[in-house]
Design goal:
The chain has eight helices and 13 strands. By secondary structure, it is of the alpha+beta class. The protein folds into two domains: 93 residues, Phosphorylase Kinase, domain 1; 157 residues, Transferase(Phosphotransferase), domain 1 (Orthogonal Bundle). A five-stranded antiparallel β-sheet has the order 1-2-3-5-4, with helices on both faces. α5 runs antiparallel to α7 and α5 runs antiparallel to α8. The longest helix has 21 residues. It is globular. It comes from Gossypium hirsutum (Upland cotton). This is G-type lectin S-receptor-like serine/threonine-protein kinase At1g11410. InterPro entries: Kinase-like_dom_sf, Prot_kinase_dom, Protein_kinase_ATP_BS, Ser-Thr/Tyr_kinase_cat_dom, Ser/Thr_kinase_AS.
């Protein structure tokens, strides 16, 4: 046992290799680096009173730096399913992005057995703390909801089209939308994000990551992801259906910001009842021209009064 390190059964060679990897990791990151003691003091030694929440990555804590600046600290859990690759991916990805609807990265901390990401503090926590709470949700009137929807759409448009890198978030959900003092939405958590070249529009993976329920069918089933995968997740936040019916984010922003909103088409049958067909070119389509099964349910289509 090595005194003061809390490591059991480690050899000197193991420690030297870990430290070497640690230093090389620091050199890859073009962001401000904080030392662990500074962040520990700011968060009152990561006390429970300062804990803001818990995710797949680990716990998030509120902190106050010596200059009085409020921060949010994401601490990689030693038991986390997301490791150093996701940590570096998040830091490298978001450090190259600047938009009012993306959470701002202030820096990170890389020390033996500690990985921390430091963000701007968002006092109103995440969107799910409002929409899934009976008391909090009444605070979100329609103008406020519209403002949040519009902000998320603009943030996604920036990721998909206007940033230096084309970014697919791959884990867009209510808990990853943070809200500041003015309730301005900011997209966060880029640990699972993927960057695309200018000519790339989709990719395939055998490792499907993200959150079921917010995950598009073509991604969850076949591992196909594209900017439309994020559009599906966005649609879940504002209630939406099939890939062919999803607009791109430029269209969504145009519709949301226009005073003369065009007439919308009648809603189609839910995508859950459609049969999915994948063509040879990888493009999924949906067919509803099937005889209903013996245990089928009837669907009532609402109309205007």
């Amino acid at each position: 046992m090595i005194q003061g390190s809390g490591i059991q059964g480690s050899t000197q060679q193991d420690l030297e290799e870990q430290e070497d990897n640690n230093e090389r990791g620091k050199g890859d990151l073009e962001v401000p680096l904080f030392d662990f003691q500074t962040i520990s003091i700011a968060t009152n030694n990561f006390s429970l009173q300062n804990k803001l929440g818990q995710g797949g990555f680990g716990a998030v804590y509120k902190g106050i730096l010596e200059n009085g600046q409020e921060i949010a600290v994401k601490r990689l859990s030693k038991k986390s399913g997301q490791g150093i690759d996701e940590f570096k991916n998040e830091v490298l990805c978001i450090s190259k992005l600047q938009h009012r609807n993306l959470v701002k990265l202030l820096g990170c901390c890389i020390e033996p057995h500690e990985r921390l990401v430091i963000y701007e503090f968002m006092p109103n926590k995440s969107l799910d703390s409002f929409i899934f709470d009976e008391k909090q949700r009444i605070l979100l009137d329609w103008p406020k909801r519209f403002q949040i929807i519009n902000g998320i759409a603009r943030g996604l448009l920036y990721l998909h089209q206007d940033s230096r890198l084309r970014i697919i978030h791959r884990d867009l959900k209510a808990s990853n939308i943070l809200l500041n003092y003015e309730m301005t939405p900011k997209i966060s958590d880029f640990g699972l994000a993927r960057s695309f070249g200018e000519d790339e529009i989709e990719a395939n993976t055998t490792r499907v990551v993200g959150t079921y329920g917010y995950m598009s069918p073509e991604y969850a089933i076949d591992g196909l992801f594209s900017i439309k995968s994020d559009v599906f997740s966005f649609g879940v936040l504002v209630l939406e259906q099939c890939p062919k019916d999803r607009p791109d984010m430029a269209t969504a922003v145009l519709i949301l910001s226009s005073d003369n909103i065009p007439s919308l088409p009648q809603p189609k049958e839910p995508g859950y009842f459609a049969t999915r067909i994948v063509h040879h070119n990888g493009d999924p389509s949906f067919s509803t021209n099937l005889s209903p099964p013996s245990n089928s349910l009837s669907i009532t289509f609402p109309g205007p009064r």
